[in-house]
Design goal:
Layout lengths: L2 E5 L2 E4 L5 E4 L7 H5 L3 E7 L8 H10 L9 E6 L5 H20 L13 H21 L3
Antiparallel strand pairs: 1-2, 3-4, 4-5
C-alpha cells in the first residue's frame, strides 16, 4: 500500500502523509502512561502535488476551520491501544473526510409551479377548515 485511494480519480501517496506518535490523553493505566500510541496525521493541503487546483480550492473552503495557519490538515486518533490501529484509523478518517468534501455539489433545484390537483387539494383543505370554524360560532 503505497498510496491512499480517495476516489476513482485521486490517490495520495503515503509519502505526503507523515505520522507522529504521542501519549494518549485520558485514563487508561500503564499502557497510556508509558507508550506513545496516539497517532497524528498531517497533510499539507496547500502544497500537495496530488491535488488538482479545483480539488485544492474545494477542500480549502470546505475544511477551512480544520486547517492550521500553514494550511496543514491534522487528524488525531487515540481510539485503540496500538500505533498501527490508530494509524489505520487516521487514514480512514482522512479518506472519509476528503471523499465527502470532494463530491461535487448537487444540481440546483429548478423552480416549478404546483400542479392543478395540488392547488385543488390545498383549496379544499382551506374550505374544510373554514367550515369547521363556522360550525363553532353561535347561531
Amino acid at each position: 500500500m503505497n498510496a491512499v485511494r480517495i476516489n476513482s480519480r485521486l490517490d495520495i501517496p503515503l509519502v505526503e502523509l507523515p505520522f507522529s506518535f504521542t501519549r494518549s490523553p485520558g485514563p487508561g493505566g500503564q499502557n497510556v502512561n508509558k507508550l506513545n500510541t496516539r497517532a497524528e496525521l498531517r497533510f499539507d493541503l496547500e502544497h500537495s502535488p496530488s491535488l488538482s487546483p479545483t480539488q485544492r480550492q474545494r477542500l480549502l473552503t470546505a475544511l477551512q476551520s480544520r486547517l492550521n495557519r500553514d494550511g496543514i490538515l491534522i487528524i488525531h486518533s487515540s481510539r485503540f491501544r496500538t500505533q498501527e490501529r490508530n494509524k489505520k484509523d487516521c487514514i480512514d478518517k482522512f479518506t472519509n473526510l476528503l471523499e465527502t468534501h470532494l463530491r461535487p455539489p448537487p444540481p440546483k433545484r429548478r423552480p416549478t409551479r404546483p400542479g392543478r390537483t395540488a392547488i385543488q387539494k390545498r383549496l379544499d383543505g382551506k374550505k374544510k377548515t373554514a367550515q369547521k370554524k363556522n360550525l363553532r360560532q353561535r347561531p
